[in-house]
Amino acid sequence: MAEHPAYPVGLRLTGRRVVVLGGGQVAQRRLPALIAAGADILLVSPEATPSVEAMAEAGEITWERRPYADGDLADAWYALIATSDPEANTQASAEAEAHRVWCVRSDNADAATAWTPATGYSEGVTVAVLTSRAKGRDPRHTAAIRDAVVEGLRDGTLVAPHHRTRTPGVALVGGGPGDPDLITVRGRRLLAEADVVIADRLGPRDLLAELPPHVEVIDAAKIPYGRFMAQEAINNALIEHAKQGKSVVRLKGGDPYVFGRGMEELQALAEAGIPCTVVPGISSSISVPGAAGIPVTHRGVAHEFTVVSGHVAPDDERSLVDWASLAGLTGTLVILMGVDKIGRIAETLVAHGKPADTPVALVQEGTTAAQRRVDATLATVAETVRTQDVKPPAVIVIGEVVTVGGQAPAPARPQPPE
Ligand SMILES: C[S@@+](CC[C@H](N)C(=O)[O-])C[C@H]1O[C@@H](n2cnc3c(N)ncnc32)[C@H](O)[C@@H]1O
User: Fold this and answer.
1) Would the pLDDT of 160 be above 60?
2) Which position has the higher pLDDT, 334 or 408?
3) Which of 19, 60, 130, 229 has the maximal Cβ count within 10 Å?
């Protein structure tokens, strides 16, 4: 008899009874999607993995702690048969057939009446890849096709234009600390769809090279105005391009709201009536120390970390930082934009009682191929910055966490092949 291909379909399971037999790894992998689909899930199994147990405790599924019994599938619309007992699986399969319940079998795809596709998600669309025939099934190949499609849509190498009208506007995208792999999936997708990208000096600049030729890339660092006009010029550029109906991405280093002036840009856009979405990013304040082997907290060492801007010196009247209080904290201090002023900052902390031998690390150009870590103490840091020629951008970490990881690891970012 000829083997016909499987017929793909999307089940709308909200409120409908789905019976899962077996609480092991298969159930653990499949249950989240069934829960997300709103199914009324009954798990029948004497045991369950801790994750499955947690789903039952959270009320996401009903768990009956017993083996499968005839009649369990009577009210089901759909069944997942995945016990470790082949005999029980065969009996349950027969019951499913008798009640006309579509059923997936983890132990025997041939005996199943339904197959689970490899699924992924992209912008509200489910990508489901299904092997069409039992013969020659290769689940890894199916999953690889799914990954290729989803990844391609995310990074823009597969282009699927929207046929609905795109909403013009601005996305303030946190690009992460510099490694192009450390932007969020959402940020990368918006970047792939942009008509105009206004980029900062910091952040994943390598991604700009991947943009198609029609995308206008504006270097915010080169916008010609005096230092204090620059932000206004950036705001105007965002507004003007958005008013022309374009999709504009403001690509920022780290997270837009961590010393990133993201709220100022959002407010300027709101005043101009331009819709704006904000995409969080991985802040350098945590990721750059991490890439150099420094955890900002560590059990038994630091129970807090404080992120401080060091762009004005402690005795500068514009400073909003209470350095005397910071000197009294036992946790980690993370200083951004502090390379120029670290000498005055270290002196002030010591003057207010922080031990002069407190460890300090400076991590320059973290997560990029040029990452470099230099260690010092509060007593020596000013001199070390001079002699080692430490330059911005750098994150400065002050506290005992600096020494917990031992030797600094190599840069986190893999080097491109020769
Ligand atoms: C204007 S702040 C922006 C911070 C950004 N919004 C964030 O969340 O990471 C710029 C400062 O961030 C730090 N910084 C950003 N990226 C860095 C990197 N890759 N390596 C070291 N420091 C970095 C430096 O202290 C730099 O002076």
Assistant:
1) yes
2) 334
3) 19
Find, among 335, 334, 395, the residue nearest to 177 by Cα. Answer: 395
Q: Give CA torsion, residues 220, 224, 227, 232, to 10 deg.
A: -70
Give CA 64 to chain center in angstroms: 36
Kindly state if the Cβ of 202 falls inside 6 Å of ligand 1. yes
* Amino acid 225: pLDDT: 55
Q: Is 391 a residue of the active site?
A: no
Catalytic residue selected from 179, 200, 255, 375: 200
Pocket test for ligand 1, best of 179, 255, 395 (most atoms within 8 A of CB): 395
Closest CA to 402 of 363, 348, 354, 350: 363
What is the structure's pLDDT at 407?
56
Residue 175's nearest CA partner among 134, 138, 216, 220 is 220
Report the C-alpha gap between 357 and 143 in whole angstroms.
53
C-alpha span between 294 and 284 (Å, rounded)? 12
Q: Is 200 in the pocket of ligand 1 (CB under 6 A)?
A: no
Give CA–CA dist 238/171, Å, rounded.
10
Task: Please tell me if the CB atom of residue 180 comes closer than 6 angstroms to any atom of ligand 1.
Answer: no
| 154, 159, 162, 167 alpha-carbon torsion, rounded to 10° | 60
- 63-101 in b/e form (b: 16+ CB < 10 A) is beeeebeeebbeebbbbbbbbeeeebbebbbebbeeeeb
| pLDDT confidence of residue 417 | 41
CA dihedral 82, 88, 90, 91 (to 10 degrees): -130
For 46-63, the pLDDT digits (tens) are: 999 999 999 999 999 999
Is residue 259 within 6 Å of ligand 1 at its C-beta? yes
Residue 316, strand partner residues: none
- CA proximity to 151, closest of 174, 121, 187: 121
Sign of CA dihedral 161, 150, 291, 319: positive
Dihedral, 121, 142, 18, 21 alpha carbons, nearest 10: -130
Task: Specify the pTM.
Answer: 0.78
Look at ligand 1, atom 15, and give the residue with the nearest C-alpha: 284
